[in-house]
Amino acid sequence: MLKLRQLQRQKREQAIQNGTVPTSRNVPVSACQLRLRKDLDSLDLPPCVSIDVSECESNSRLYISIIPDEGYYKGGRFKFCATFKDTYPIEPPKVTLMSKIFHPNIDLQGNVCLNILREDWSPVLDVQSILIGLLMLFLEPNATDPLNKAAADVLVANPDQFRRDVVASLRGCQVNGQWYDQVM
Question: Domain UBC core, which positions (predicted)?
Answer without folding.
Answer: 31-175
